[in-house]
Amino acid sequence: MFRHSTDTELVVLVGNHDIGFHYEMDWFKLQRFEKVFNASSTRIVTKKGVNFLLVNSVALHGDGCPICQSVEKELLRLSKDLNCSLQHYPLYRVSDASCTGQDAAPAEERHLLFREKYDVLSKEASQRLLQWFRPRLILSGHTHSGCEVLHENKFVEISVPSFSWRNRNNPSFILASVTSQHHSLSKCFLPEESTVIGVYCSAGTCLLLLLLLHCLCLKGLLQCLSLCLLGKHKSL
């Protein structure tokens, strides 16, 4: 999906579209993901002295399932080295009511309550992640809409909107510059789907008009040619 040069590293993060929701998750799906992308679903990626924790948030339901226990054990082991957290599910929040911006959820959807362990992580799992890692930046997805949340007045979470027209009219992605002391995020929007559809419809209409005009001109030319031939035939 994301074509890139051989000298560009592609980092993947597991989500419910890869291994299913929590109740659908099993070892086969998890190991298939890790085998295809040759990477553990929970790990630390270090770039220029900054540690990024990639969290298998599908397994953070706290119900004691074997995969959950394995993921939590690995998170505890990695907890000493964290700077930034990357995860599919957002940390717990009631709704998107406080979210703003052109990539936020539509106004009529922002006050819809999120379901724990389905739309967002549970309160308990979110508190554990914040206590274990105390990240200075959290990047998440899943809701398909953009949002910036400040947890406990000190932990910044950015929910990245969907990159697909399937999920929203104005998809986007984020370019991040992260150092050991600072981070800077830039949001890049793709053309709106409605605009692209409008361009295609306009282009199609113009082509049809040109084709119709061409047919009318050709018809007129044939009629003139027929009249000329008929006139010559009568004169003979």
Please explain how this structure is put together.
The chain is an alpha/beta fold. The protein folds into two domains: 175 residues, Transcription Regulator spoIIAA; 43 residues. The protein contains five helices and eight strands. The strands form two sheets. A six-stranded mixed beta sheet has the order 1-2-3-4-6-5. The chain has a two-stranded antiparallel sheet with strand order 7-8. Strand 7 and strand 8 form a beta hairpin. It is elongated, with a radius of gyration of 28 Å. The mean pLDDT is 84.
Kindly summarize this structure in a few lines:
This protein is an alpha/beta fold and 236 residues long. It has helices at 16-19, 27-37, 66-78, 123-133, 193-235; strands at 43-47, 50-55, 84-87, 137-140, 147-151, 155-159, 172-178, 183-189. The strands form 2 sheets. It has a 6-stranded mixed sheet. The protein has a two-stranded antiparallel ribbon with strand order 7-8.
Can you give keywords for this protein?
5 helices; GPI-anchor biosynthesis; Transcription Regulator spoIIAA; 236 residues; 2 domains; two-stranded antiparallel ribbon; alpha/beta; 6-stranded mixed sheet
Assembly level: single chain
Name of the top-level CATH class of the largest domain: Alpha Beta
Task: Note poorly predicted spans.
Answer: none
Q: Tally the helices: what do you get? A: 5
Arithmetic mean of pLDDT? 84
What best-fitting shape do the alpha-carbon axes yield?
A: elongated
- The N- to C-terminal Cα distance equals 72 Å
Run of helices and strands: HHEEHEHEEEEEH
Largest sheet strand order: 1-2-3-4-6-5
CATH topology of the largest domain: Transcription Regulator spoIIAA
CATH architecture of the largest domain: 2-Layer Sandwich
Rg over alpha carbons:
28 Å
Q: What structural class results from the helix and strand content?
A: alpha/beta
- What is the percent of helical residues? 25-40%
Instruction: Describe the sheet with the most strands.
Output: 6 strands, mixed
Would you report the number of β strands? 8
Number of domains: 2
> Strand fraction band?
15-25%
Kindly report the name of the CATH homologous superfamily of the largest domain: GpdQ, beta-strand dimerisation domain
